[in-house]
Amino acid sequence: MLRGEEYLRQSAASRAVSVTPGERPAGGGTTLDIAGTLSGTIGSGEALALLILSGGTSYAVRCGEISLPPLGAEIRVLARVLETAAGQTRLELAGWAFASDVEKARTARRSSPPTGALDARRKGPTAARGASVDHTAYFRQYADAISRINPRLSREQVEQITRVLLNTSRECDVDPRLVMAVILAESGFNPNATSRKGAMGLGQLMPATARGMGLRDPYEPTQNLDASIRIIRSALNRYSGNAGWKDLNWEHLRLALAAYNAGSGAVKKYGGVPPYRETQNYIAKVASYYRQLCGEDGRASR
Fold this sequence. Notes:
alpha/beta, CATH 2.40.50.140, Lysozyme, 5-stranded mixed β-barrel, 6 strands, 15% strand
C-alpha cells in the first residue's frame, strides 16, 4: 500500500493514463490510473487478481500475494499493461492507495503556493522562438487574467484556481497556457457552468468522467480543474506515445483536444479528428486562444 503522496509521485513518474470508463489502452508499456471500488478477487497465490469496479467497468489487476484492502473500499490503482505471448494484454499491479489518502495529498498540494521554477517550462508548439517561460514567476498575471475573464469569482477562488492550474500543470508537464485556453473555451472559468448534455464545472466534465476521476463534487473548482488537466495529459500521452511537453507537436495537441471534446472513441473511429463541426470549431477556438496567450496572432494557421 502506498501513502497518498507516494501514489501521486509514482503516478507522475510512470506517466500513468487515467482510465476512461469502458476503455482500455491497447498495447503494453502503458500504466493505468484506475479509480474505483474493490469488488472482489479471483485466482490465488501468484495468480491472485483484484477486481476493480470503475464507472460500470470491471478491471482484473493481477497482484500476487499482497496485503489486500477490504472489500468495498474506494481505492486508486496503478496498473501496468503487459502483453502476453498470445498477443493479448493483462493488467499487473504497480501500486495502490486508498482514494481518500490520494485526495488528501492532492488537497495538500492545492493549498501550497507554487514554489521554484516550473518544471514544464518547455518550448511548446507555439512558444516564442525557442524561449522558455517560468510560469510560476507569473502567478499574479495568471490570477489577474482569470479574474478578468470571470470577475464574479472571489479573490480566494481566483487564487485557489491559479495554484491548481500552475501546480498540476507543472506536475503533469503541460503548458498552463494550454490549460487556460481549454478552460476559457469550455466554461469561461465559470465553476457553476452546466451544458445541455450535463457536462459540469470549469472543465465541463461529464458525470461518468467525473466519477471515474474520483471527484466528490464536480462543481468544486479545484477538484474539477485538477482532473481536467490530468485528462488533458492522459490524452497527450495516448497520442504522443508519452512524449514530454518539449517533444509534442500540433498534431498531438489536435488529437488530444479532439478526444477531450468528442471522446477518444470518436478519434479512434475516424482515425484522427472526427468530422464533427462542433469538435473542429472547438479545436480552432482553443488553438486561437492558446496562440494569443503565447503572444502570437490568434488567426494564424498551422
